Every structure is written in structure tokens, then in C-alpha cells.
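Need a sequence for this fold. Nothing fancy.
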């Protein structure tokens, strides 16, 4: 089976690729990277064109023989939902399993991001899932300024420390700490161990949900869409 992962930052390629390989060593994985998307989204530049580019990458993956597509970026998660509805193969967003778990826990959910463009899509996802399930929750959002710049400079220690400090400030009053971007996952280990059980990250939860679905997918060789269980 072939999986295509669409990235908007090089920071997720190696870590996510290694995680997928460790969880599903039998899967052939291809990666597509467009690192101009986040800049365009943050600047609000021609979002319709950004959307069309992302959808075209998903179409290319489908034409290239992928049985599933995974969006590694929470900022463009809604584009992945749109692609999922239009393509004959399933398209996943990396953060959906994490958001479902946050909703299941309920209470106060603190959402952290290092890019402003990620906060609203993640909040909308959590609110939609909460509404669908009838769960009650309160959401607050925190932008960790400067952390993404540190990551792009190659200083993951500074990146993780900035996020950990932001989480520490919110942790006493929150039931769940959501790290909205896959690139933030390593910051969980920089947090005080007393609060780590509150942290949710997207890569492992997202990949394990994908693994579960791919294992249970049923499809026909005649091109019938593979169905999620």
C-alpha cells in the first residue's frame, strides 16, 4: 500500500516519516513538500490559490497510485477535508485524532500554536467535533511567539523551551494541553513531568488512527473508493 504525506514545512518530513515507518513498516511512503504555503497563509496572500495548490498535490498523489493521503499540517487541515470529499481515496488530517481525544476529555482545552495561521483551524476542528458529539468544553488559544523562528534556525531546544514555558503557564487551569502543529510534538518532553499527562500531540495519535483505518479498509481492484471503518 502507498501513502502520500503532504508537508508545508521541512521540519515534519524526517520525524513523521520515521514514525510512519516504525508503526507501518510495510507501507510505501512518498512525501510532497511546499514550504511556501505557511508563509502565504500567515500573510493572507491569495488563500484561494493556496487551496488550489494543496488540492492539486492531493490529486497528484491519487494519480500517482496512493491509496491514502495524509496532511501533515494543521493550518491546511480544512483543505484535506475538502480533498477527502472529492477524491476516490481517503485524505486524512494529522490533527483529527488528537482533536477527538481532546473533546473526549472535555473540560478546559488550551490550544498552543507557533504560527497564528494554525490557531483558528484547530479551534474550528475541536468545536465542530464537540458539537457533533454533544460534548461540553471550553477552548482557549495561545500563540507562542518566536518559537517557529527558532525551529527554522535549527534551534529546537529554544523552540521546545518556549512552548514548554507557555504550557506551564496554562497547565494549572487546563484539563488538556493541545500542541496544534505536528512540528511541536517534541516540546512535550520539555514540560514539567507533573503536567505531561495533560499534553496531546498530533503525530502519534494521527498515525495510529491512520494505521487502524488502513488495516481495516476494504476496496475493490476496479477502483472503488477504499472505505474507512
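Here you go.
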Amino acid at each position: 500500500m502507498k501513502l502520500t504525506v503532504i508537508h508545508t514545512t521541512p521540519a515534519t518530513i524526517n520525524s513523521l516519516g520515521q514514525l510512519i515507518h516504525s508503526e507501518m513498516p510495510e507501507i510505501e511512503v512518498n512525501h510532497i513538500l511546499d514550504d511556501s504555503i505557511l508563509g502565504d497563509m500567515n500573510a493572507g496572500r491569495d488563500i484561494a490559490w493556496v487551496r488550489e495548490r494543496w488540492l492539486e498535490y492531493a490529486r497528484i498523489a491519487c494519480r500517482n497510485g496512493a491509496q491514502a493521503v495524509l496532511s501533515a499540517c494543521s493550518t491546511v487541515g480544512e483543505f484535506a477535508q475538502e480533498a477527502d470529499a472529492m477524491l476516490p481515496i481517503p485524505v486524512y488530517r494529522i490533527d483529527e485524532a488528537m482533536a477527538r481525544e481532546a473533546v473526549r476529555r472535555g473540560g478546559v482545552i488550551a490550544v498552543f500554536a507557533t504560527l497564528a495561521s494554525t490557531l483558528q483551524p484547530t479551534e474550528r476542528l475541536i468545536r465542530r467535533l464537540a458539537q457533533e458529539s454533544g460534548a461540553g468544553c471550553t477552548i482557549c488559544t495561545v500563540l507562542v511567539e518566536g518559537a517557529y523562528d527558532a525551529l527554522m534556525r535549527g534551534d529546537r531546544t529554544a523552540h521546545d523551551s518556549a512552548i514548554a514555558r507557555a504550557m506551564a503557564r496554562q497547565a494549572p487551569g487546563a484539563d488538556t494541553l493541545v500542541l496544534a502543529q505536528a512540528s511541536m510534538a517534541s516540546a512535550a518532553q520539555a514540560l514539567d513531568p507533573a503536567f505531561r499527562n495533560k499534553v496531546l500531540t498530533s503525530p502519534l495519535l494521527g498515525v495510529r488512527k491512520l494505521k487502524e483505518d488502513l488495516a481495516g479498509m476494504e476496496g475493490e481492484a476496479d477502483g472503488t473508493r477504499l472505505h474507512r471503518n
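For context: The two ends are 17 Å apart (CA to CA).
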